[in-house]
Amino acid sequence: MESQREYTRFTIKGSVIFKPKGNLPHSINADLFDLSFKGISVYSPEKIEIDTEVDFELTVKLFDRPIIGRGRIRYVKAAKINNTDVFKMGIEFIGIEKEAILSIINNLQRGIAISIRKKQA
After folding, report:
1. Which CATH number fits the domain that encloses residue 27?
2. Is residue 1 situated within a structural domain?
3. pTM of the complete model
4. Which stretches of the chain are DSSP H helices?
5. Does residue 96 lie in a domain region?
6. Domain count along the chain
7. Is residue 49 a part of any domain in this protein?
8. Distances, alpha carbon 30 to alpha carbons 19, 58, 84, in Å
9. What burial class does residue 114 get, using C-beta atoms within 10 Å of its C-beta: 0-12 exposed, 13-18 middle, 19+ buried?
10. CA–CA distance from 31 to each of 18, 110, 121 (Å)?
11. Mean pLDDT, residues 85-102
12. What gap in Å lies between CA 116 and CA 121, rounded to an integer?
């Protein structure tokens, strides 16, 4: 079955701090799971309802500073990590510095290409 995703998702470690709009006035610290040109997926200790807008700060080692953005929660699923209950959430970008996301994706692709070349050598 073909993937219906418009953009490739890359698994990447990082952190995300969310500030949901509306009913949750506090910040939530989450672990980044993957990233694409259109959004991110995270593991969060707290559930945020679908369609909630969030402001966030995304931090990854492949970029020299945090990336500030805005997104909308598109899916929420209960999950377990190391016997801890968490929520896997998909966030679609509404506003973000696209050049920063492209830089991260380019670095990830470069790393994948180097790894493949080493295996072939």
Report:
1. 2.40.10.220
2. no
3. 0.85
4. 98-120
5. yes
6. 1
7. yes
8. 11, 10, 13
9. exposed
10. 11, 23, 35
11. 95
12. 9
